[in-house]
Specification:
Helix content is about 35%, strand content about 10%. The chain has about 60 residues and is α+β, with helices and mostly antiparallel strands.
Length: about 60
């Protein structure tokens, strides 16, 4: 992140572990607005909050 910032890179980084212990601190301000964490989620987990999240996701991403 820091090297990308130093050379003026404006793109984003998609990562599975960008939110893992120590990673955000190591990236510092260079990662703000640039790093997107990719995570798994189970849409069949029961509960009102899960159903609400799933409906919101489907509305936002109708064709994932």
């Amino acid at each position: 992140m820091k090297a990308a910032k130093d050379v003026g890179y404006e793109g984003k980084f998609y990562t599975f572990y960008g939110n893992a212990l120590g990673a955000p601190a190591a990236m510092g301000d260079a990662g703000v607005g640039k790093v997107l964490a990719v995570a798994e989620w189970m849409p069949n987990v029961p509960g009102a909050e899960s159903a609400k999240f799933y409906q919101s996701f489907k509305q936002r991403f109708a064709k994932p």
